[in-house]
Specification:
The complex is a heterodimer. Chain A is 17% helix and 52% strand. Chain A has an eight-stranded antiparallel beta barrel. Chain B is 36% helix and 21% strand. The longest helix of chain B has 35 residues. Classes of the chains: A alpha+beta, B alpha+beta.
Chain lengths: 139, 199
């Protein structure tokens, strides 16, 4: 009987301890910041009427300098959206950079911002041509 | 009495204990997993990733179509507000407008701003567009006399990239209040600070 209770007690301890052990092993939680919004101003023809960049940003900023971004550049006047996906990084020099693929043809490159607003450039995928710039203002 | 003292009883009891133990173990496992799920949800502001807000936002709006009702007859013109004039790179004027209270956009002469509506002229303080066969002029939003005066004088010195803002650009609309910028700004500033404090 005593052996049986010992067995049961150790099984109980093992089962209840498993989740906390897995957490301690480095399964860190990520946060998702939903609806992060910038106002966009550009004269690049394809995006001139697309005045809002709205993304969700996912990452573990306690343990990482990187974020995954996904969302879209909204063109309200045309009732349209350019789907966007990419990443952002907090650079070691204390600046912030973003790179977003827009639709199927462009990359929006925002390099080394010192704050949450700044200038970016639209680059054509394929030949890497810069087609124009944009100013992103964090709302 | 004979059954109670039979040698099979301890074995039955043992079996019952084992069954109980298995049931309890399953229960505990389920409970701990359940707590795990709740804990993940509760961490910070974690939310399951979804692209819904973006597509909903755009698609939930009624289609921006202004179809011709009958020959020669069109639907009412859109509500247009002129917020500012920008000097374009090639010297032409660009207008910052809001169509039907949507966020501002920059338009050139010749741009279609709505179905049946095309920009025909941009002046220092007004924009004219053709809606069907009618020409409609939209004046700059009225502001305090001092700011309007300075804006007018600034436009004379308009250069490429120079924006004559009337203070409307970037102004938060009620719908814009529903964004996650406050939380993101906090996380951003915290991360920047931690990077700057590094040796």
């Amino acid at each position: 009987m005593k052996t049986f209770f010992k067995f049961w007690a150790s099984l109980f301890v093992l089962v209840t301890a498993l989740p906390s052990v897995s957490n301690a092993a480095g399964v860190a939680p990520t946060n998702t910041y939903t609806d992060v919004v910038w106002s966009v101003s550009t004269t690049v023809p394809d995006f001139a009427r697309c005045t809002e960049l709205r993304v969700d940003a996912t990452g573990d900023l306690n343990n990482s300098r990187r974020l995954s971004l996904y969302g879209g550049q909204n063109c309200f006047a045309d009732n349209d959206v350019f789907p966007a996906s990419g990443s952002a990084i907090f650079n070691a020099n204390g600046t912030f950079s973003m790179n977003l693929f827009l639709g199927s043809g462009y990359v929006l490159q925002c390099n080394e911002w010192t704050g949450l607003s700044g200038s970016c450039k639209y680059v054509l995928i394929g030949n890497g041509t810069t087609v124009g710039t944009a100013v992103l203002t964090f709302r | 009495m004979a059954e109670a003292n039979s040698p099979a009883r301890p074995q039955r009891q043992k079996l019952a204990y084992v069954a109980c133990a298995i049931a309890l173990t399953i229960l505990v496992t389920l409970l701990s997993k359940g707590f795990g799920l709740f804990a993940e949800d509760g961490v910070g502001k974690a939310v399951a990733p979804t692209a819904q807000p973006i597509f909903n936002q755009v698609q939930s709006k009624p289609p921006a179509k202004e179809s011709v009702v009958s020959e020669g007859e069109i639907t009412p013109p859109p509500e247009i507000q002129l917020s500012g004039i920008v000097g374009g790179a090639n010297g032409q004027q660009l207008a910052i407008i809001s169509v039907n209270k949507a966020p501002e956009l920059i338009v050139h002469v010749g741009d279609q701003i709505f179905a049946s509506s095309t920009v025909t002229e941009i002046n220092l303080d007004s924009l004219t567009y053709r809606h069907g066969s009618n020409l409609i002029r939209v004046a700059m939003k009225s502001h305090a006399p001092s700011s309007q005066g300075s804006a007018a004088s600034n436009t004379e010195n308009s250069q490429p990239g120079f924006a004559k803002s009337t203070g409307q650009i970037g102004q938060q609309r009620p719908s814009d209040a529903k964004n996650g910028n406050v939380e993101f700004r906090q996380a951003f500033e915290q991360k920047m600070k931690s990077l700057q404090q590094r040796p």
